[in-house]
Amino acid sequence: MDLLGFALAVLLIELTPGPNMAWLAGLAATEGRRSGLAAVAGVALGLLANGLLAALGLAALLQAAPQYWIWLRVGGAVMMLWLAITTWRSAGEAPAVRAPANSAWRALGTGTVINLLNPKAYIFFVVVAPQFMDDATLTLGAAMILSVVSAAIATAIHLAIVIAGASAHAWLLDPARLKPVKRGFALVMLAIAVSFLVADL
Question: Residue 57 half-sphere exposure, CB side, CA atoms within 13 Å?
């Protein structure tokens, strides 16, 4: 495997704005570093699971059966829509200096699910990954190696995003500032949900 070439491809892809970047930045800014770091861990788990599922045949199934691909995209859109609605509704609530104890677990789970429902992750293992392998067949061992490399690079970038986003958390403790930011964050997630569907049209 050309791991260096693969790592550079992952880096370029991860630097492209997408659902993870927008969600992690907004979450860290509105709920703080703890929730942001938990979300980063959830995203990493989701990315590792993507590689495993791809090796077990899910990526090939999505390529051969377009109807499953559409369901996956709809699932991702519904997830982002739910996040957008809950964020919009919570915009009027008084900000907390520290997020509730269960928010970290919620962020961990949400980060995992977002990536399990992210079509871009499966496209990556169908289209991109085989180009860096001597054998185009994605074996379980190769998938896990590529998944670890991918998750490590993504996590480094996501940690930087969360640290930058969390720096705005104290400034957002003012309700007058938090409300418009949360609603803007909700609109970004709504736009991501729409993009999941428009691509199929």
Answer: 3
Classify the phi-psi angles of 57: left when phi > 0, otherwise alpha if psi is within -120 to 50, otherwise beta. left
d(CA 103, CA 201): 35
Ramachandran angles phi, psi of 134, nearest 5°:
-65, -35
DSSP 128: I
Choose among 67, 43, 63, 196: nearest CA to 123.
63
* Total Cβ atoms within 10 A of residue 20: 25
Burial zone of 181 (CB within 10 Å; 0-12 exposed, 13-18 middle, 19+ buried):
middle
Q: Are 125 and 51 in contact (CB under 8 A)?
A: yes
Closest to 90 in 3D by CA, of 27, 18, 165, 167: 27
Distance from C-alpha of 77 to C-alpha of 70, rounded to nearest angstrom: 10
Round to whole Å and give the CA distance between 9 and 15. 10
Residue 45 pLDDT level (bands cut at 50, 70, 90) = very high
- pLDDT tens track for 58-100: 766 766 777 777 777 788 788 888 888 888 887 666 555 455 5
* Sign of the dihedral defined by the CA atoms of residues 134, 137, 143, 149, in that order: positive
